[in-house]
Amino acid sequence: MDKSAITGRPVLWMVIPCYNEEAVLMKTAPMFLDELHALTQKDLISDKSRILFVNDGSKDRTWEIIRYFAEKDSHFIGISQSRNRGHQNAVLAGLMEARENCDFTISIDCDGQDDISAMEKMTEEYLAGAEVVYGVRSKRETDTFFKRFTAETFYKFMKALGADVVYNHADYRLISSRALDELADFEEVNLFLRGMVPLVGFKSAVVTYERHERLAGKSHYPLSKMLRLAMDGITSLSVRPLSIIAGVGAVVGVIGLIGIIWAIVTALSGNSVQGWASLVCVVCFLGGIQLLSLGVVGQYIGKIYLETKRRPRYIIAERTWEPYERNYKGGVN
Ligand code: UDP
Ligand code: MG
Question: pLDDT digits over 82-95, tens only?
Answer without folding.
Answer: 999 899 999 999 99
